[in-house]
Design brief:
Structural class: alpha/beta
Largest sheet: 7 strands, parallel
Strand content: 15-25%
Distance between the termini: 64 Å
Number of domains: 5
CATH architecture of the largest domain: 3-Layer(aba) Sandwich
CATH topology of the largest domain: Rossmann fold
Radius of gyration: 29 Å
Low-confidence stretches: none
CATH superfamily of the largest domain: P-loop containing nucleotide triphosphate hydrolases
Amino acid sequence: MDTALQILKEHWGYDSLRPDQEQVIGSVIGGNNTIALLPTGGGKSIAFQIPSLLKEGISVVISPLIALMNDQVSSLKKRGIKAEMISSGMSPKQIEIVLANCQYGKVKFLYLSPERINSIMVKSRLAQMNVNYLVVDEAHCISAWGHDFRPAYHNLLSLREMHPEAPIIALTATATKKVIEDIIDQLEIKDNHKVIRSSFERRNITYRVFRSENKINELKHLVKKLDGSGIIYVRSRKKTADYQKKLAQAGLSVEYYHAGLEMKERREVEKRWLKNETKVVVSTNAFGMGIDKSEVNFVIHMDVPSNMEEYYQESGRAGRNGNPANAIILFNQEDIEYQKMMLQHRFPNSDLIKDVYTNLGNYFQFGAGGGKGKGLVFDVHKFARKFKYEALLVHHAIKILESEEYLFLSENNLRSSKLMMLVDRYQLRDILDKENILSKVLAFTLRSYTGIFNEPKNISESYIADKLDITEFRVKNTLQILESKYIVQYQTPSFHPILIYTKERLPGKSLEISSKSINQRKYNATQQLNGMLDFILEDDNCRTNIALFYFDETPATDCGHCDNCLKKQKDRNINETILALTKEEKTLQEIISASRFEKEATIQAVRMLLDEDKLTRNGNKIRS
């Protein structure tokens, strides 16, 4: 552990570990398969990165999100630690280079999506690597009982077979006891494992829930009143821009963020927020994962989340520095009805699923037996319009097909633009000899990107623009002109998902969809939504404790600072004041005048105390 602390100081600049981090590292160093249940912001990454740095070999980290992998790899490299990742959009040659570096280049961490494990190229290289640990990030994704089930996580078992001597480190921020048990079963570590579970209690976060029919006005009022920086979560990309505009019109410092924005734009939004140049970011749940900012003072949800796991993870991005913070939900009955409706959409019937599957083959023009391993840009709205489906139903039908392992829908494809020369170098002389923008851009591109005559290469229009001192728009326009002349093949980034067939296409009638499995997942989702609704609709019991009970913790006392606890304290104060005032008979009006509380609250308290026989009435006079 002394050496672990030296590494911590050298790479992260900290002098000590948190108690739960220390427990996890101790368990891992001791050779145990370790399940670590640590809260959002609890330093899960350090808990597996330090053991890996202490041991010869490379850690293979399975992570579900490209954005999260990218953040962690960038962070490690900044600390002088060699790390690599494989993501969609990389060419086979790029993947081969990364794998070769991992095998021979003393790389300490290789980040992979679970779907990549089944690639023949990746498998063959992984089998030859000296793997010290197998790390399963967001481990709840392996469990059908979890809130974000990813069946591709079952590919981990083939990794275990390759490296049976490498201990497993499974990490998650949100999981019930049932999910933890399922993770242990799915990873086949029942006979040798240790579970380290940190409490879900966040003593510094005040949970507050407001029922509101005019949420935007309520939001403006809250954000003006709250100090520091925050995140506002909304359900759709359109809402991010709508809310940002309305808050900006109210004079607030606010930007919006979603996965459809260009990478450069998203990075700029993150950078300004991290530097506190922007107070608030309005975002879909694409924002916050992997972003290292400890001083987030508030997180506001404008829509009801579908489960407590998702909510606890997102709200837990507030107050990571231990200072007081607020987690707020604004909701109305329409939000509740929407979530109930979504449950029906999320689990379409098998006939619709088979129909969507058949038409996907027609859409991509694959016959039966074809398509395996193909990755295709997929625009769900275009597909839905063509075959007259509701886009939301298509999305969830594909999710079922994904869970049955027929295909996989990646997250947004955030590739760079690609460029390839279509003519030989000597055919470019006429253009290169001229003094114009075409010559300028073409000459610089040829100097900067080797191999561009042989295969499409990732390029950066902003880099070319900076070096040539022209606008990015002008670079793109020039490349489009060159493409129109059949000189280059120019492909701009696609922000649509990539759909990958994991098996050869079957005839629709041969498709096997497990109704039992779908019904089980629907039941799980219903239970999770009910837990979320219990949290928001409760107006009496401690809200923190409701969350803790959901995650199988038994709290000793109420938190004392959530909205329900504060309301109860206020009620006690009103009651004590009224009982003291009425030791001598008074009229109701005299009680209201003497009370320091609001008129309506005082009247309500008097009525309750009369009902409980703690006050008595004599004509129009009241006494205790």
